[in-house]
Amino acid sequence: MVLHLLIVVLASTVMYLYLHYKTHMNLRLMLIDNLIVAFVAWIVGLVVFNTIVLSVIVSILVLPFIAYAGIQLRFWRTPKRKVTARDNQIVSPADGNIIYINRIDEDREFVSIKNGRFSKIDELTGTDMVRRPCIQIGINMTPFDVHKNCSPCDGKIVLSKHIVGKFHSLKEFISMTENERHTYVINNDEYEVAVVQIASKRVRRVDSYVNEGQEVTKGDWIGMIRFGSQVDIFLPIDAKIQVKLKEQVYAKSTIIAEISK
Q: Could you give the CA distance from residue 207 to residue 184 in angstroms, rounded to a whole number?
């Protein structure tokens, strides 16, 4: 039985290491999910067959299905997180890892960046809703992250615009201008913050839970992206950034910036 369990854990670890390579998932999540999936698969193997060889084969075969079920549970869950940020603190609008922190100067247009490629966020370019210079933070969301997005601050939704897309891979240059996305601008009379939800390959939906003109509270769920995706947030230039590149952040709970009063 011990040998059976060790073989299942090894097979599960190899599978999760591959998932980490493909999605850059948090290794802490890999450890937790890996042990749970391996244990459940081991139990299934023991229940179905009494012989070691057949139990090992069955356990390894059911690993991907149990892992997929676990990923789905993580993806669709709505975590109950308490917002502890102070009035002048901005919380992360999404779960994921920080892929860039950029300064957008007055002579630069609003763009999103993926794999070193730039493209315009036309719904912000040409408006004065978000003042330049400003700071842009990109958050990459993997299938292991919660895909609901929240308002990073208190305020009023002064822009809520949905762009129907063609669903290219985020690795393709045209994905940022042609993929489905939804852009919000939130104003609270002191500053404006923009949040851009960008869909990925095969994603057919970006859901919005709020409307233009609606008041939102910091941490309110404002929308959801189905599967692989990216969220960009544009902040005032005087914001003091509290996160660093490659850091894992969490919607509602991680403080990504402080606004000077």
A: 12
Q: Would you kindly state where each structural domain of the chain is located, as residue ranges? A: 2-76, 89-258
Active site residue 160: no
Under CATH, which number does the domain 89-258 receive?
2.70.70
Select which of 92, 208, 229, 253 is catalytic: 229
The phi-psi region of residue 246 (left if phi > 0; otherwise alpha if psi is between -120 and 50; otherwise beta) is left
8 Å CB contact between 208 and 183: no
For the chain, the average pLDDT equals 81
Amino acid at 206: V
Judge residue 257's burial from the number of C-beta atoms within 10 Å of its C-beta, 0-12 exposed, 13-18 middle, 19 or more buried.
buried
pLDDT tens track for 74-92? 777 788 888 999 999 999 9
Q: Fill in the amino acid letter for 191.
A: Y
- Residue 78 zone, left/alpha/beta (φ > 0; ψ -120 to 50; rest): beta
Q: What is the pTM of this model?
A: 0.75
Cis-peptide, bond into residue 133, ω within 30° of zero? yes
Total count of residues recorded for the chain: 261
The structure tokens listed for 201 are 């390959």
